[in-house]
């Protein structure tokens, strides 16, 4: 036999047992964003490399070492999108969606980062995200956080995630803080790990989320960004905190939360779980008022988040939230005897049309009663329907419950009634 070719490391197949779980989560997400009046945007999976370099920042993990970048046949440098915000802004600018307008958008789809694959971290992964444009006040920051909290409620995991919140101030405040932080870190240079030493001059704020224990201990005495905020930034943050409290959303302020992407200002947040080990951040985002301008549009305030779908599905699975997935098949239709095959295919289609939501699988491939019943059972269906020559003559269908109950013969009308009830349960 020929040698089999394997999938690329860190890029996973989603097989039927899992795709059911994903579909359930995706359905919940779609209904949720619709209930908030958000609209979907779909952008290409590949963009010009320059878009991500400019949007995300040259000195970030993503741009420095995680992007899938290649030259296409024209010699253009293209990149598989590592996140969704840059593409959304690019598309919004290109099509005039952002110019003096308000937009509440969402997206869902695959992203690509060349990281070390491990539980909750993959090279192709999926994000669901929302992006809101044209609104500068803290109420919209509160709304996107309420949307995420509503998602946890819908999925029954509100008690398993907690919200961490911080503010980065505006560009000037951040610059002043950055200077103070560099002065402090320079005094303790020998304590810094290699990554942090490198970042000291390129992206010092990132030192704040160093995973190194010595660095973390050192940071306990470092200047705090909150102390560098002006009145407006303080007011924005305080209003957000009040709105969240009014909405009953608990949070902790984490002054070291800075996020890995360069474009954030003011509000930043993460929803974190303790149930997934070190890949505990399920959803992350914040305000990014300068990005639209930075990518060539008119300055437009913006706020959004991205959620890691794999991490969410893992969390739900860990917590047993997929134990009651809907049946893949409600009824399995068997045909006995040559004359019944055509009638069975036809009956199946009639039932699909007359009973909305009913999932009907028709037996194909022939075989005796025993074989067909085996298949019926394996399909997971609740009922087997049997159409034989006798049934055809009498205009009846035999209904055989597969999970307990009496076998009966029903007219087609009575059958349709019964199946409607089955679908509703
Ligand atoms: P991390 O600190 O875990 O690397 P990040 O800051 O790089 O996360 P973002 O760019 O903010 O993550 O992406 C938002 C969310 O997307 C993350 O919180 C996470 O849930 C998910 N995510 C990011 N990278 C991956 C990945 N390689 N595999 C799976 N999910 C990911
Ligand atoms: Mg990362």
UniProtKB/TrEMBL annotation:
Residues that coordinate or bind L-histidine: 83-85, 113, 127, 131, 259, 263-264
Gene Ontology molecular function: ATP binding; histidine-tRNA ligase activity
Subcellular location: Cytoplasm
GO CC entries: cytoplasm
Principal localisation: cytoplasm
One Pfam family linked to the record: tRNA-synt_His
E.C. numbers: 6.1.1.21
Substrates-to-products reaction catalysed: tRNA(His) + L-histidine + ATP = L-histidyl-tRNA(His) + AMP + diphosphate + H(+)
CDD domains, sorted: HisRS-like_core (cd00773), HisRS_anticodon (cd00859)
Aminoacyl-transfer RNA synthetases class-II family profile domain location: 1-326
Any one GO BP annotation for this protein: histidyl-tRNA aminoacylation
SUPFAM superfamilies per UniProt: Class II aaRS ABD-related, Class II aaRS and biotin synthetases
Alphabetic keyword roster: Aminoacyl-tRNA synthetase, ATP-binding, Cytoplasm, Ligase, Nucleotide-binding, Protein biosynthesis
PROSITE patterns, per the entry: AA_TRNA_LIGASE_II
Similarity section: Belongs to the class-II aminoacyl-tRNA synthetase family.
Subunit structure: Homodimer.
The protein's name in its UniProt record: Histidine--tRNA ligase
Organism of derivation: Ferrimonas balearica (strain DSM 9799 / CCM 4581 / KCTC 23876 / PAT)
Gene that encodes it: hisS
């Amino acid at each position: 036999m020929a040698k089999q070719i394997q999938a690329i490391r860190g890029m996973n197949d989603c097989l039927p047992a899992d795709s059911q779980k994903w579909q359930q989560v995706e359905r919940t997400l779609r209904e949720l964003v619709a209930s908030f009046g958000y609209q979907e945007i779909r952008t290409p999976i590949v963009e010009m490399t320059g878009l991500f370099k400019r949007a995300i920042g040259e000195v970030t993990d993503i741009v420095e070492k995680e992007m899938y970048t290649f030259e296409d046949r024209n010699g253009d440098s293209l990149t598989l999108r590592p996140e969704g915000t840059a593409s959304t802004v690019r598309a919004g600018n290109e099509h005039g969606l952002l110019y003096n307008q308000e937009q509440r958008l969402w997206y869902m789809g695959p992203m690509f980062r060349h990281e070390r694959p491990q539980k909750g971290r993959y090279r192709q992964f999926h994000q669901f995200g929302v992006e809101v444009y044209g609104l500068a006040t803290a109420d919209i920051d509160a709304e996107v956080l309420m949307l995420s909290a509503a998602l946890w409620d819908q999925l029954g995991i509100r008690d398993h995630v907690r919200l961490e919140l911080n503010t980065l101030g505006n560009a000037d405040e951040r610059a002043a803080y950055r200077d103070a932080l560099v002065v402090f870190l320079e005094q303790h240079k020998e304590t810094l790990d290699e990554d942090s030493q490198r970042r000291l001059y390129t992206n010092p704020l990132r030192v704040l989320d160093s995973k190194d224990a010595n660095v973390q201990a050192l940071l306990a005495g470092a200047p705090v960004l909150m102390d560098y905020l002006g009145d407006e930034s303080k007011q924005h943050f305080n209003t957000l905190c009040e709105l969240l409290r009014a909405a009953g959303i608990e949070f902790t302020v984490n002054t070291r939360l800075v996020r890995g992407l360069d474009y954030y200002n003011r509000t930043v947040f993460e929803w974190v779980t303790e149930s997934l080990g070190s890949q505990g951040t399920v959803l992350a985002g914040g305000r990014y008022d300068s990005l639209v301008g930075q990518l060539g549009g008119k300055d437009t305030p913006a706020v959004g988040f991205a959620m890691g779908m794999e991490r969410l599905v893992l969390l739900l699975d860990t917590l047993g939230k997929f134990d009651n997935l809907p049946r893949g098949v409600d009824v399995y239709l068997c045909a006995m005897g040559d004359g019944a095959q055509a009638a069975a295919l036809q009956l199946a289609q009639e039932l699909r049309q007359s009973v909305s939501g009913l999932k009907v699988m028709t037996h194909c491939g022939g075989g005796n009663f025993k074989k067909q019943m085996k298949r019926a059972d394996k399909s997971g269906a609740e009922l087997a329907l049997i159409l034989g020559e006798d049934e055809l003559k009498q205009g009846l269908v035999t209904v055989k419950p597969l999970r307990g109950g009496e076998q009966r013969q029903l007219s087609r009308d009575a059958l349709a009634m019964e199946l409607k009830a089955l679908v509703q349960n």
